[in-house]
Structures are given as structure tokens and as C-alpha cells.
Amino acid sequence: MRATRAVIHLGNLKSNIRAIKSFTKPGTKMCIPVKADAYGHGSVECAKAALDAGTDFLAVATVDEGVELREHGIKAPVLLFSLCAPEEIENAVSNEIIPFVFDGEYISLFAKEAE
């Protein structure tokens, strides 16, 4: 049985991101998902490469994934694809992780924590 592996060449990732951006209108924002450890390829390394290539935002699935990016010095906006549990809201707010919101009550929870 052979071992399966995927190798990410960060230079190629950067080149691909730049190529995609070249087809968009000036000022168009780009968000790259790095959830699930960038699908097993290293979220921090892929995030840094994506930002270096001109990505504007990053996206994660969990608050912990966003915190990991912050712990590695990534300051770019980080969007959260999933809902926060109430006990995660403080961590999301303090790490400036941007939640998707869906109703007034959910917005109020974040607003209260941000005060």
C-alpha cells in the first residue's frame, strides 16, 4: 500500500491567488478559507502566503482556528464560518474574529461582549 500525501508549494499558491485577482475588478476583496488547518496543509503557512499574495480576508470554521492565526501574528480580518457557542464569544471578540450574524439576539451577545 502506498502512502498518499499532498505537497503545497507556497510559491504556486501565491501565483494562483495573484492570477485569480488579476481577473477581478480593482478594489475587489478576496477571502481565502484556511479552516481545518487549510484542509490539512498548514493554516498558518497558507494564510501567510495568501496574505502575501494580496488576499484581504481569511476564513475559519472555529474560534480556536482564528485564535491560532492571531497567536502566529496574523492581523488580517478573520471571518468565522460557523456559529459561536455562548462561551466562545469572549474569545472571538478579544481576538477580533468576525462572526457571521443572523439575528438581533446573536448580534446583541457580541455587542454586549465588545463593550
Outline of this structure?
The chain is an alpha/beta fold. It has helices spanning 10-22, 35-40, 43-52, 63-71, 89-94, 104-114; strands spanning 31-33, 57-60, 78-80, 97-99.
Please tell me about this protein's structure.
- This protein is of the alpha/beta class.
- It has a single domain (10-114), classed as TIM Barrel.
- It is 48% helix and 11% strand.
- It has helices at 10-22, 35-40, 43-52, 63-71, 89-94, 104-114, and strands spanning 31-33, 57-60, 78-80, 97-99.
- It has a 4-stranded parallel beta sheet with strand order 1-2-3-4.
Core attributes:
single chain, 115 residues, alpha/beta, TIM Barrel, 4-stranded parallel β-sheet, 6 helices, globular
Q: Determine the N-to-C terminus distance.
A: 56 Å
Average pLDDT for all residues: 93
Please state the structural category.
alpha/beta
According to CATH, what is the topology?
TIM Barrel
Helix content: 40-55%
What's the helix and strand layout?
Blueprint: H1 10-22, E1 31-33, H2 35-40, H3 43-52, E2 57-60, H4 63-71, E3 78-80, H5 89-94, E4 97-99, H6 104-114
Parallel strand pairs: 1-2, 2-3, 3-4
Helix pairs in contact: 1-3
